[in-house]
């Protein structure tokens, strides 16, 4: 079982780059728009990006953090580039 905590957001960057912003730390990485579009289409070329089995989220690891972003928000972000953002969530294990 997992729990999610909001830790930042994805922001439109220059030249098609999506900036991975962590609250309180600033930019912790970048993903190119084309890589995330291919991942959303189920053809992701980058191993660190994984579409969930339901297709509702994209999972990846940056600086040792397991992060999740909703696919719907990423699609909206890319469609309305560069106006929109997408929330960034950290997946945390829940002990029962």
Folded structure, characterized:
The chain has helices at 33-40, 71-79; strands at 2-12, 17-22, 26-32, 49-51, 57-62, 65-70, 86-93. With 96 residues, the chain is α+β, with helices and mostly antiparallel strands. It has one domain (2-93). It has a seven-stranded antiparallel β-sheet. Helix 1 (33-40) crosses helix 2. The mean pLDDT is 90.
List key phrases describing it.
alpha+beta, 18% helix, 7-stranded antiparallel sheet, 2 helices, 96 residues
Task: Note the topology.
Blueprint: E1 2-12, E2 17-22, E3 26-32, H1 33-40, E4 49-51, E5 57-62, E6 65-70, H2 71-79, E7 86-93
Antiparallel strand pairs: 1-2, 1-7, 2-3, 4-5, 5-6, 6-7
Short description:
With 96 residues, the chain is an alpha+beta fold.
């Amino acid at each position: 079982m997992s729990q999610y905590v909001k830790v930042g957001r994805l922001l439109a960057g220059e030249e098609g780059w999506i900036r991975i912003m962590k609250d309180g730390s600033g930019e912790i990485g970048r993903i190119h728009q084309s890589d995330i579009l291919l991942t959303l289409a189920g053809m992701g070329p980058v191993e660190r990006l994984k579409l969930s089995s339901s297709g509702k989220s994209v999972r990846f690891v940056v600086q040792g953090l397991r992060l999740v972003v909703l696919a719907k928000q990423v699609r909206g972000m890319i469609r309305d580039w560069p106006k929109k953002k997408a929330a960034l969530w950290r997946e945390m294990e829940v002990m029962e």
